[in-house]
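> example.struct
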């Protein structure tokens, strides 16, 4: 069994430990947010790069199609010239009729191809403009992103320094806490990342504001074992002044 002064000491250390762990938990949360910010910036840049790549591929494909149609148009025009020559030397009405029909068909095909080529060129102009615009935007955005990421990384490094200092402080405190209560504390901490140790004020748990019985308060005073709140399962302790009273009696 612990002496009252040992109990007071334990409670004091657990409260300090809880304070340090609270700071560590907040540092961890901050680091998660900072890393998340870096990730969203990188994702945004990647998305923009991918869009440029997609449009560039579309331009290649569209250019290829346009060339194919140009060749086809040239071939069709040559064919039409031949038919025209045949038409000019036609000897019978039947031949005349056949060549005229053929010329009409080829002319229709030529119009279709001309329309298609025009559509390709319009689309190409639009896509090229789009890529230029996106590239310009990306250049500015990339510079900004590099600056922001460097700043976020510096902040993370700063938090890491703080974490290391706190970790040393924590080690110094845990060295003074007996194994039994320390294990119990660790179990509560695993569940309650924020404020694993709470005070009892006006017979009320300050973690969840449920009533704490006088019997439980006596148990805390006796210090045989750590007392957990029946409702929020945090470690209950008494305010310093009240602990002082207990150790003097
Ligand atoms: Zn509680």
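> example.seq
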């Amino acid at each position: 069994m612990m002496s009252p002064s040992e109990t007071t000491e334990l409670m004091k250390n657990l409260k300090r430990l809880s304070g340090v762990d609270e700071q560590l938990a907040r540092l961890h949360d901050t680091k998660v947010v900072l890393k998340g910010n870096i990730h969203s910036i990188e994702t945004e840049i990647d998305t923009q790069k991918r869009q440029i790549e997609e449009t560039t591929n579309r331009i290649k494909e569209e250019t290829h199609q346009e060339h194919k149609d140009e060749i086809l148009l040239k071939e069709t025009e040559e064919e039409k010239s031949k038919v025209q020559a045949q038409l000019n030397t036609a000897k019978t009405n039947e031949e005349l009729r056949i060549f005229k029909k053929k010329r009409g068909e080829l002319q229709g095909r030529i119009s279709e191809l001309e329309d298609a080529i025009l559509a390709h060129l319009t689309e190409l102009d639009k896509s090229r403009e789009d890529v230029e615009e996106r590239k310009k935007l990306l250049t500015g955005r990339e510079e900004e992103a590099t600056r922001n990421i460097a700043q976020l990384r510096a902040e993370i490094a700063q938090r890491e320094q703080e974490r290391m200092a706190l970790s040393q402080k924590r080690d110094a405190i845990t060295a003074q806490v007996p194994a039994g209560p320390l294990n119990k504390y660790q179990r509560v901490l695993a569940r309650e990342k924020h404020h694993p140790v709470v005070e009892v004020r006006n017979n009320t748990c300050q973690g969840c504001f449920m009533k704490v019985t006088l019997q439980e308060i006596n148990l805390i005073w006796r210090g045989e074992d750590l007392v957990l709140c029946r409702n929020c399962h945090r470690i209950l302790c008494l305010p310093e002044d009240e602990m002082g009273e207990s150790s003097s009696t």
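> remarks
Residues 178-248 form one domain.
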